[in-house]
Amino acid sequence: MKRKKQGLSFFDLFSLGFGAMVGVGWSATLNNLMKNGGGPIPATLGFAFAAAVFIPVALCFAELAPAIPVSGGVVAYARRVFSKPVTFIAGWFMAMAYISIVLWESIAINDIIGYIFPSIKGGSPMHSLVGENIYGSTIIVGIALSLVVIVINWRGIEKGAAFQSTMTFSLLAGSVICVIFALAHADLSNLLPVYSQVEGKSHTTIWAGIFTMFGLAPSYFSGFDTIPQSVESASDVNKKKLGKVIVIALISAGVFYVAIFLSAGAAYPWLDTINMNRPVLSNLFAEIYPGILGTVLWYICIVATLAGLFGTWNGFYMAGSRVLYGMAKAGVLPQIFAKEHPKYKTPYIANLFVAVTMFIGPFLGAGVLDILSVLSSSGFVIGWGIACLALIRLRKTEPDLERPYKIPGGTVIPKFAFVFCVLMLLNCIIPGMPGYMGIGGLTAFAVWMALGIIFYKISNRIR
User: Fold this and answer.
1) Model pTM?
2) Predicted confidence (pLDDT) per residue in 373-391, tens digit
3) Quick one: which of 318, 316, 385 has its CA closest to 54?
4) In this structure, what DSSP letter does residue 407 have?
5) Any idea where the domains of the chain sit in the sequence?
6) Which of 95, 239, 323, 409 has the lowest tally of Cβ within 10 angstroms?
7) Positive or negative, the Cα torsion across 284, 287, 288, 289?
């Protein structure tokens, strides 16, 4: 008799990481990414540079995840070697990063649905925020779609992972078709000028454009760390392979972004592409392939876009609730966040906390997407930096710890990864730096810190 699969498979974990990294921005807001870089070539270089820098960070997780195979990821690693305040800081900022992306996706889904069905943006807007109108009908749609993700994950991580694998397969199939047809219409002259200053963006040189993309990149590559959040459910995966899947997912996402930026940039003059309405890549195909082929490609791209969006949304919803659950188990959040559903064994209070943030997103509008991107980037690099430090310390305090996958070269790579995490954080928070999050981002950052202090004091009193 064939044994029934238990837990998550290798492809489930790959789907969780890759699907969380490759969301919707590559298609729906491609023009904004090109604007942030000053063209497809600086955008490509910024993301390629970021992917190379993140490999050492991913290698740290590749060693830590199978060595400490418990849910919580960064929280579990910090708890193993650091004090509770450091554990709380790591978890709280990772939660901020995950929730920022959950918000991002809940806004983006409204934006895309609004372009597929323009009638839902009819009538007078309820309000405007950062130059974007928000309509009551799009809020209803956003909340309804949020409920789909919530219900899927309410019934257990295997259900969420199965949904994730389906979305990842759809994304891969659709995006391959998009790249092939973009390259079929490619003309290298469309990539020129190599760099141009874009109105509304602060960069003035190609290097500033590259580092602007570098500042946004942690948000777009962050999905690889969703894999350790679900490591306890990976019973069908060899521990050594568990480490490898993290790095494979990251490199695959890097190749994906490079392929999209260059193929789309070469398919149509990029200075015209940046002025297209969302969803940009779909509209690009309608422009370069008039008639039925363009219409078919428009819908294929939309399906791949929605698959990517739901994959990221689902992956970070799962990861966000798991990190809150891990923090409660570590004793740095109130124990109510560690409560499990009696039937499905899901952390339902943590799930509900993240669910509330999903419902907030549709009220905000697309004007805050850049703020959320940089806010999540800053949260990720704080958590990743602490994970790198945890690995360095574990090498000294627990040299005999079983490590199914071990980074060669001692602590050189973890130290290198930590330094880059610090540099990336400085790029996000220092005024004048290309990746600076701005007053809006700093305000949200401060509010999240204040909320964290309140939660930490409450958990201290309970303890």
Assistant:
1) 0.81
2) 888 889 999 999 999 999 9
3) 385
4) -
5) 23-462
6) 409
7) positive
